[in-house]
Write a structure and sequence with these properties.
The protein is α+β, with helices and mostly antiparallel strands. The chain has helices spanning 3-15, 21-37, 42-47, 55-68, 73-83, 135-149, 166-174, 200-203, 254-258, 263-271, 286-314, 329-342, 347-358, and strands at 90-101, 104-115, 118-126, 154-159, 179-182, 189-192, 197-199, 212-221, 224-234, 240-247. It has a ten-stranded mixed beta sheet, with helices on both faces. Helix 6 runs parallel beside helix 7 (166-174).
């Protein structure tokens, strides 16, 4: 049995109720080709299809699938959710990434789940233009997550300076979703619980470099009650600066928890230069790009859980002198699967990777 047929059999276990066999077979070919060429460029992918068809025929097949057939992103989200190596509740990370494909702006609002240094992509929205997201767009994304996986699977939510706003913070407050969000403007004036207005810089003006402070009293920001934490640091311009976090709960570890947010940046690198080079796409149609991104998400997740398994059961990733791993779990798994595909004498490695993909926590 070919490797694509083996993968098809495993994906049928996950997707058989939502997709027909022909589309699952194509999906298998696409995923395996992604590991081989580590690019979303259609011409490159066509050369790597595990098929007797000529490159031109494979290229037309890719173009036809992307342009004509549906790949529901919620189905992909459910697949990824079943593959998560840890149990809920989860730390959710919200962020946005963008780049330009010709004259078209690719602007992605992504929700992911933190896990040991990287994060799993779970849901996304494609935004018009190149600007930031609106409160409504963020709310819709979180509501989609809750509808699919229920609110009790959320431990807390972390987001960067872009993700503030009255209606957005009010939504999180009403839904009782704990959050840790960085404030964009350090000079903003807020209200104490007694109604007195105060400048944030004035609150933390005595902080020294690398010093952290948590304020155990509530404040009102955009009309919503929250708590403040801050870190004083030297920014990339060599100037003294503040990193200020607002949180829904009275938690002195807010800054420590917020540090998980960087894991989504590692995931984005896996999508881009460190993995599948999604910026090489020539797609101009946003709906078509949505399908491509969903396929990359599946490939990323399989590589990630394979890297976790390889580290825990086969060979641990080397720890460098600075204390960090020499490779991310994603890169460790990506190399493992690519090696299994490219070397005909390593079919056992591919069997191991398939076994990992076939296992779920549910």
């Amino acid at each position: 049995m070919s490797k694509s047929n083996q993968l098809t059999s495993v994906l049928q276990l996950h997707l058989g109720k939502s997709m027909n066999l022909a589309r699952i077979r194509f999906l298998s070919l696409m995923i395996l080709a992604l590991y081989k060429v580590q690019s979303v460029n259609f011409e490159k992918l066509a050369t790597a299809f595990d098929s007797k068809a000529k490159r031109e025929s494979s290229l037309r097949r890719i173009q036809r699938f992307i342009s004509q057939y549906a790949l529901p992103v919620d189905v992909v989200a459910r697949l990824i959710f079943t593959l998560l190596p840890h149990q809920p509740p989860y730390s959710l990370l919200l962020d946005r990434t963008n780049w330009k494909s010709g004259s078209i702006e690719i602007n992605v609002l992504m929700l992911s789940i933190a896990y040991q240094g990287v994060s799993f992509p779970i849901l996304f929205s494609l935004l018009p233009g190149k600007g930031g997201s609106s409160s409504e767009q963020r709310i819709l994304l979180i509501e989609r997550y809750i509808k699919l996986f229920e609110k009790q699977t959320i431990l807390h939510l972390m987001a960067d300076r872009e993700f503030t706003g009255e209606s957005w913070l009010s939504f999180l407050y009403v839904e009782k979703i704990k959050y840790f969000i960085r404030i964009k403007d350090k000079s903003v004036t807020i209200n104490r619980s007694n109604g007195k207005r105060i400048n944030i810089r004035g609150i933390f003006n005595r902080l020294k470099i690398n010093q952290v402070q948590f304020i155990p009293e509530s404040f009102l920001i955009h009309g919503n009650e929250c708590y403040l934490s801050a870190l004083c640091f030297i920014n990339d311009k060599g100037q003294k600066d503040l990193l200020v976090i607002i949180s829904l709960e009275n938690n002195h570890k807010s800054l420590e928890l917020y540090r998980e947010r960087w894991q989504i940046e590692t995931m984005f690198r896996g999508f881009k230069s460190s993995g599948f080079n999604i910026e090489e796409t020539h797609l101009r149609d946003i709906r078509r790009f949505e399908k491509l991104l969903a396929i990359v998400m599946i490939a990323f997740t399989w590589a990630y859980i394979t890297g976790v398994y390889r580290n825990e059961h086969l060979k641990e990733i080397k720890i460098m002198k600075h204390g960090r791993r020499a490779k991310s779990f994603f890169k460790y798994g990506l190399d493992f699967i690519a090696q299994a595909l490219m070397n005909p004498n390593m079919s056992k490695l591919f069997w191991i990777a398939l076994k990992i993909l076939s296992c779920t926590k549910n």
